[in-house]
Amino acid sequence: MKTYKKKDFPVSEIRKFLEPGPVVLVSSAHRRRTNIMTMNWHTPMEFTPSLVGCIISNANHSFELIRRSRECVINLPTVDLAETVVRIGNTSGRDLDKFAAFKLTPVPATTVRAPLIAECCANFECRLVDSKLVNTYNFFIFEVTKAHVAPTPRYPKTIHYRGDGTFMISGTNTSRYRPLFQPDKL
User: 17-185 belongs to which homologous superfamily?
Assistant: First the structure.
């Protein structure tokens, strides 16, 4: 097995190594206002119920929409939307209708008022189930109440933020280690 020689590294930059999750678009709605934000700070927390934790800055327009409505949709874009995803992240929805500005199609959700984004390969309707960490850490804990996933492609090409404006496109899948995998040990 290979060993690695290491050197000190700024702790403020470790996210470059720990943020492998896909960049998502979070849609929200409250009192006839909708918004879309680009987000990378999310983590699955539990299988059943399906819980997802998300950091949403209180400086972001979506923060208040989601805090007040207590719901959102986490939408999974594919690499063909990468430029749009970055541009959405560079704008504020306070004075801009991002659905119209970025030519995205809002679709009514089943269990929440926030719209799905039709151009995304998966949409996860979410309700806020724990807000204890919102005021202190901007950390929302959502329960996924409904999932909509395109059957193809089976493994969509997603984008992943590595920090400093560097992105990674999801790579090769392998089943090579499946014989070693023990799902009951998760």
Answer: Electron Transport, Fmn-binding Protein; Chain A (2.30.110.10)
